[in-house]
Amino acid sequence: AQKVTQAQTEISVVEKEDVTLDCVYETRDTTYYLFWYKQPPSGELVFLIRRNSFDEQNEISGRYSWNFQKSTSSFNFTITASQVVDSAVYFCALSEGVYNDYKLSFGAGTTVTVRA
Amino acid sequence: EAGVVQSPRYKIIEKKQPVAFWCNPISGHNTLYWYLQNLGQGPELLIRYENEEAVDDSQLPKDRFSAERLKGVDSTLKIQPAELGDSAVYLCASSKTGLGLDNEQFFGPGTRLTVL
Q1: CB pair distance less than 8 Å for A109 and B41
Q2: Closest chain A CA to residue B41
Q3: Suppose B108 and one of A103, B4, B38, B42 were both cysteines; which one would form an S-S bond, judging by CB atoms 3.0 to 4.6 Å apart?
Q4: Could you tell me if A20 and A32 are in contact, meaning their C-beta atoms sit under 8 angstroms apart?
Q5: Which residues in chain B have Cβ-Cβ distances shorter than 8 Å to A98?
């Protein structure tokens, strides 16, 4: 069964628009970590954020913000005032348990295209 | 600081041929990972090394795939013989440690394999 679901396959926006990427996860563990990675056309995955299951505080980093809601098992990511350089594939990932926290289960990714 | 280096970036081979991918992790990173990324999917872990030891190879198809990390630094992933279904991107990642707060994974650009 898919542990991480990213329902949006592709999103296309015009520069300066906000874009929100949805991520829904599934786990039975009480201890887990959630991640977002960015994969630009060059190929390498770039780490954006990690949150543990005990910290539901929303986080803002520049134009990026994350909304973690355990009640709905969601960890959504918003890019505010998008720029062309934000065009990439974005992956949400989950690692479960204390002793397997290296094991990332990735969603299928959402391709974001920002048009000038 | 140099990132994770992988070579070659692209490889085209005919089925039944052998192929090898090389990875040089970030200096000082003890943990090394190999991932497989199929088109339109998120990466899937193949194997994880702690120094020279393969501590999780449960997802590695051992009939045709092998990996080594002889001196606990560089690593090689081999496929012999390659099949059409092996066409994918092979990503290498490294982290300071495998567990805990220092296990943030840094990814290389990947090797795109095409099997004809």
Answers
A1: yes
A2: A108
A3: B4
A4: no
A5: 99
Q: How many Å lie between the alpha carbon of A107 and the closest alpha carbon of chain B?
A: 6
Helices (H) and strands (E) in chain B, counts: 0, 11
Ordered per-residue pLDDT tens for chain A, 116 residues: 679 999 999 999 999 999 999 999 999 988 898 999 999 988 889 999 988 898 888 888 899 999 999 999 999 999 999 999 999 999 999 988 766 667 889 999 999 999 99
Q: Choose the closest CB to A102 out of B40, B103, B106.
A: B103
**∠ CA A105-B2-B6, rounded to 5°:** 55
Read off the DSSP letter of residue A14.
Answer: E
Cα nearest neighbour of A90 on chain B: B42
In the predicted model, is pLDDT for residue B98 greater than 70?
no
Three-state DSSP state, A55: coil
CB contact under 8 A, A93 and B103: no
Q: How far apart are CA B56 and CA B69, in angstroms?
A: 13
- The pair phi, psi for residue A35, each rounded to 5°, is -135, 155
Are A102 and B106 inside 8 Å of each other by CB? no
Q: Residue A102's closest CA among B103, B111, B10, B27?
A: B103
Nearest to B54 by CA among B36, B77, B38, B37: B77
pLDDT digits (tens, 9 = 90+) for B23-32: 999 999 999 9
Q: What is the CA radius of gyration of chain A?
A: 14
Residue B102 tokens read as: 């220092």
The structure tokens 């280096």 sit at B5
